[in-house]
Design a protein that fits this description.
Blueprint: E1 3-7, E2 11-13, E3 18-25, E4 33-39, E5 45-52, E6 56-59, E7 67-71, E8 77-82, E9 91-98, E10 113-114, E11 118-123
Parallel strand pairs: 2-11
Antiparallel strand pairs: 1-3, 3-8, 4-5, 4-9, 5-6, 7-8, 9-10, 9-11
Length: 124
């Protein structure tokens, strides 16, 4: 069973930066689609950024130019560098992954596995 563990959430002031990390365990092969999602209080879950390995990276419009998703050196590890943070970025951030990538690895697609989340709070 794949398990995803996020870390790096914190409370920061607007304009600050954070780096979230995600480590996957329990799967011996490369997970082809990995990404970050978030859910703010009272709102639905939304995609933030995805890596469709060896194909492309995708970003939600409101984080383009501020957030960068990247793979770690370790297999199935993932980072999210968040710069110029805004109060509206406040949310629980979740790492998610799917075994298969390709056309199914989209910001609007479903993911097979989810972490428990790490809280990001941005104050004005």
């Amino acid at each position: 069973q794949v398990q995803l563990m996020e870390s790096g959430g914190d409370s920061v002031q607007a304009g600050g930066s954070l780096r979230l990390s995600c480590e996957a365990s329990g799967y011996p092969y490369s997970l082809s689609c990995m990404g970050w999602f978030r859910q703010a209080p009272g709102k639905g879950r939304e995609a933030v950024a995805l890596i469709n390995k060896n194909i492309d990276t995708q970003y939600a419009d409101d984080v383009k130019g501020r957030f960068t998703i990247s793979e770690g050196d370790a297999k199935n590890s993932l980072y999210l560098q968040m710069n110029s943070l805004k109060p509206e970025d406040t949310a629980m951030y979740y790492c998610a992954a799917s075994v298969w990538g390709g056309s199914s690895c989209r910001l609007t697609g479903d993911m097979d596995y989810w972490g428990k989340g790490t809280q990001v709070t941005v104050s004005s």
